């Protein structure tokens, strides 16, 4: 980076969120920006997760940008290789590479109150920016549990998001720790190669059949020749998922029929009643993310697979010990134990106007106005921020809504003119969060009887959006200046127009 480089906008991350932000900035006529990427290529989680069997559980035509439709998806549910290639294609088509700084991991972000800008320290040097858009995403930093004795394990250890392709699993005794979305893809992909596979299952997931197929050459030709057909396909997929939201957010009891279908899915593939019992969840379907696979249960029923219905609690040399005392001798451990979602590491590196980090500000739980801005952190926005996750649809829909909000945020700064910053009012953030949490109380994620990564350490759901993507798009279509303090000049805050403005918050979009 050039010495003393200054940009209007610095975007962190080059996954769907970061690339989407870069394209949207271009479309808004803003070219004075950089994308800071810690790796050496784009792709985010679809670059990092290259484990065997890695694929998306959202249909391909819905898991893509509306402004960059892809008529060439090879399957209805695409694999990691094709999704990463799509992101590479978007990067090149929109000419984004010149503005991406690869190998530039952000080490520290600190707010300069006097000059109303962010100082950014990266592994490639320092720069400043008027506005920072953090698009690091919640699935970027793997979480490995603190298991006693793990450091002394003599074999191979790696996380699913850091797969070691140089390690040959053939004939090895392998432990798979975790039963989330990654694990149910990895297990059937490696089962036939390994000598023995031991699955440490703390909580069984609900798994539904994956209705996947190849998209025919005729379909792809039709989508190329008549782009409207791609839009119609996307619209149909979106509409079906919008109709499903009510069951997740307001009427969880309606999911009972889906639960019966899931139980039949287990029964068809697993004939051993003891194993079937271990694989049947005791919580309402949907409380954890519903997983999709046609091969997971058949793989678990194979003779070289053991299912330990208890979490890993200790490692003694090459012996793994479960919480129920079950032991297994293994050569390699694969952790499919998720990511730092409610305690994102980037939050520890962001120092706001009051000299505290974003992590400290979120000590009682993550919260951000409309999932984008936190009080005390002027001109700092998150993409896929608190309570913007989805349990049944495509995150690209939520990302694009947040990009709408980002675009209007920058327009408002232009209208205000001069050296200006916007800082979310604490009252507005609190009001928004209160409405979200009130709606969350009746959702399946809070009432379904499970413990999931949607919940933070205090049991609050700070991850998922308790409504439709339409509602969220409406809530983020524009910035309400009444929800912000305007900071001008040398850190001087604009006085509110009336006493009520200090707590003003337009929260009708999230009314119960």
TrEMBL record:
InterPro entries: FAD-bind_Monooxygenase_sf (IPR051209), FAD/NAD-bd_sf (IPR036188), Flavin_mOase-like (IPR020946). The keyword Transcription does not apply. Residues 498-512 have a biased composition (Basic and acidic residues). Catalyzes a Baeyer-Villiger oxidation reaction, i.e. the insertion of an oxygen atom into a carbon-carbon bond adjacent to a carbonyl, which converts ketones to esters or lactones using NADPH and/or NADH as an electron donor. Thus, can convert bicyclo[3.2.0]hept-2-en-6-one into the oxidative lactone products 2-oxabicyclo[3.3.0]oct-6-en-3-one and 3-oxabicyclo[3.3.0]oct-6-en-2-one. Is also able to catalyze the sulfoxidation of methyl phenyl sulfide (thioanisole). The keyword Transmembrane helix does not apply. Gene3D superfamilies: FAD/NAD(P)-binding domain. Keywords: FAD, Flavoprotein, Monooxygenase, NADP, Oxidoreductase. Belongs to the FAD-binding monooxygenase family. It holds the Pfam family FMO-like. One of its GO terms (molecular function) is flavin adenine dinucleotide binding. Its cofactor is FAD. This is Baeyer-Villiger monooxygenase. Residues 488-512 are annotated as: Disordered. It comes from the Bacteria.
